[in-house]
Amino acid sequence: MASCTTHAPVSPVCASLNMMQVRAVITQAIANARAALTSQKQLNEYMFRIGIDEPLNMPSQTKTYHQHYAAFSHLNQPAAIQVDSGYIVQYATEQITSQLMIGVDELNSCPGVQMIWHELISPFCIRRDAICDVNAKYRTIDGSCNNLQRPLWGRSNRPHIRFLKPHYMDDIGVPRQVSVTGEQLPSARTVSNAIHRQDPCCPLKERDLSLYVMQWGQMLDHDLTDTAIAKGANDATIICCNLTQEVLMKRSECFPIYIQAGDERFKESCMNFVRSIAGHSDTCDMGRRNQLNQASSFLDSSFLYGHNDEDAREIRSFRDGKLKMTNSGLFPAGTNDQTNCELEGKGDYCMKSGDFRIHVMPGLTAIQVMFLREHNRLAGVLQQLNPTMCDEDLYQEARKIVMAEVQHITYAHWLPFVIGERLWKQMGLVPSPSGFCTSYDCDLDPTISNVFGGAAFRFGHTLLQNSVLFMKGQGFHIRNEMGFNRPRMIFDDNAKGCSYVAMGLSVHPASRADGQVVDSVRNNLFLDMNGRSFDLISLNIQRAREHGLPGYNSWRKFCGMPYAIHFGTGPGGLVDHNPEDAKKLHSIYRHPDDIDIFAGGLSERPVEGGVIGPVFSCIVGRTFHNLKYGDRFYYENEDSRTGFTLAQLNSIKKMGLAKLMCLHFHTPHVQMVPFRMPGPTNPLVNCAMFEDLDFSLWKQ
Ligand code: HEM
């Protein structure tokens, strides 16, 4: 039989292109992009020199709110991210599409154009690559080679995936600023004030959930996402406010938030906002702006172990499989992390863990410390059982168990409180009560999506309280503003402060997930000595716009839910909102298609038994589905090389958060389910009653 090769038909657009002209346009666009990059850098250096951009703080100085925020805009590995390449690719794409007046998808579908583009861009953009050891027993630190066919899937320092095509004003990278009716969209701060303002009385309690639900969520977030934000010269914070229009236009990374006169909190008319870095695709294709995740996508406890090899090495002791830990059981100071937090007491220092954001709130520090102590406990017991095991094997085995504990608590205990039991079951997220459940699907891309980090998983901001409950003695409240980026509470009473903070989380009710957000983050985020602060919710809304995330209605469609064509709550309207919330949305948006995904999603009525509404549950549920089924090392998978034995797995499935708290926070008792408040249906239990791992199963 004759074999035949089929060629895709050349589209009329491709056929009409003059390749000489295409080459000239691409050459010029890349040259323009490089020139623009140089002038950006020169401008950044100038703004730093004349004292407009804020330098990264030096140790022990009092920090400004910008310097506190810098922990969130820290670049872990600027070279690996290829900041310049992303800029050039995006800038050149904008120029090429507008010069040729052809959309980027059409251009990319022309093989001739692709060839010329790749030839000309290759000196300025390195394709990402990974070399795998197919026999490796353990996960890599950066997530590469989890999928042996697609070794980059889920790796750190790559772009997010998109569940939906981005919505940019120019289709390439300019954020959405205009309503479908043609008028300006309301400013992010206006949306925040109208939709997310806390009732003046007090935050309501979320059923009987404790603040551990919130804190576990933030820990997961720092395991899964760390979006890279643009920096000025010498890592300075780029300042976008109080600039002349001319300078502002030149600062392409600026997208400041305008504040209306008469705002309840801010006297100034502008809140600083710097765009996330534009990242290029793995193969340096022409394309729309996308953002980079510095964290590995997998649920691999990278908040503890680091998102890349360099960080992982820095926190290891390289003795007996242990991580570096002080005598008080805390992370030590890092070599170059002294600028990462505000030092207030004698002997305070900024700790170095796997994630740079460790100090953002004391509760987060405490939970990370819990897993530091757990890792070292496990390494110690494994060594006693197997005295000949080397440092590397002890480290990897202890790490493997910690990762399994985090996965188990997340899937078995935490997720149902967040997305509700129905979806938890429907999406196949329930671990089996005992035994293996092999679920790996090598065609499923586990890379974190842009909408997850840029909007949906920020739901935790609504669960926050205004204070930290510090359980020293009878316990007392300390306002969050005293805790942002300040480790003082942790160091209190010879580092017992860490336990006081952690125990407070389990007896402090979470705020109700009603879309309202407490003032301490909505008005006073990173409050500094000069009384300056951010609104976290404005940052969220603006972030989603600048990432090109389509509006709420598009996500309803994505989740198979009907589009809202009016602001009522009846059929055809905002059927998942309470009438008061729908009214608030109506008061500021001109059309349902304008509703921002963060505002629309967060203000939905929670699903039954969960804390988030149907749209956020759909996005979060889908993400955890991908993280389970797309992870070759998921803890329930049966694999004689990379997995656990059946008996080991069953032993891990008996471990829960309560046991970990007992082990690491000096407490005689904890309630059965720490994600819920203690009470008659969730009584305090003596720590001796909680099962530990059966370590004999790890004797080799
Ligand atoms: C404890 C108090 C918290 C503070 C002070 C805080 C603060 C912040 C800040 C400043 C950002 C960056 C905003 C931007 O410029 O885009 C951020 C991002 C984020 N937050 Fe929170 N947050 C807190 C708790 C939480 C919780 C409980 C969750 C989830 C359950 C969460 C999920 C996220 C996510 C997913 C991002 C995006 C991260 C990324 O892509 O890099 N946060 N948060």
What distinguishing features does this structure have?
about 700 residues; mainly alpha; Myeloperoxidase, subunit C; two-stranded antiparallel ribbon; 26 helices; 11 strands; globular; disordered N terminus; binds protoporphyrin IX containing FE; metal ion binding
Q: Could you name the CATH homologous superfamily of one domain?
A: Haem peroxidase domain superfamily, animal type
Given the C-alpha coordinates, what overall shape results? Answer: globular
Per CATH, which architecture of one domain? Orthogonal Bundle
Query: How many individual β-strands?
Result: 11
Reported by name, the CATH topology of one domain is: Myeloperoxidase, subunit C
Strand order of the largest sheet: 1-6-5
CATH class of one domain: Mainly Alpha
Largest sheet: 3 strands, antiparallel
Rounded mean pLDDT is 95
Cα-based radius of gyration, to the nearest Å: 25 Å
Helix content: 25-40%
**Low-confidence runs of at least 5 consecutive residues:** 1-5
Structural class: mainly alpha
Count of runs of 4 or more consecutive helical residues: 26
Bound molecules: protoporphyrin IX containing FE
- First-residue to last-residue Cα separation: 58 Å
Your description of this structure?
Among the domains are: 18-124 and 155-161 and 280-293, no CATH class; 207-225 and 295-515 and 638-700, Myeloperoxidase, subunit C (Orthogonal Bundle), CATH 1.10.640.10. Helix content is 38%, strand content 5%. It has helices at 12-16, 19-49, 65-69, 78-81, 83-100, 104-108, 111-121, 188-196, 212-224, 245-250, 302-305, 309-315, 362-385, 391-419, 421-426, 450-454, 488-495, 497-506, 519-522, 536-546, 552-558, 579-588, 597-602, 614-629, 646-652, 657-664; strands at residues 158-159, 205-210, 257-258, 270-271, 278-279, 290-293, 467-470, 476-479, 509-511, 669-671, 684-686. The strands form five sheets. The protein has a three-stranded antiparallel beta sheet. It has a two-stranded antiparallel ribbon with strand order 2-9. The protein has a two-stranded antiparallel ribbon with strand order 3-4. Bound molecules: protoporphyrin IX containing FE. Residues 72, 214, 217-218, 221, 225-227, 360-361, 453, 457-458, 460-461, 464, 521, 536, 539, 543 line the site of protoporphyrin IX containing FE. The site of protoporphyrin IX containing FE has 20 residues, from helix 9 and helix 20. This is Peroxidase.
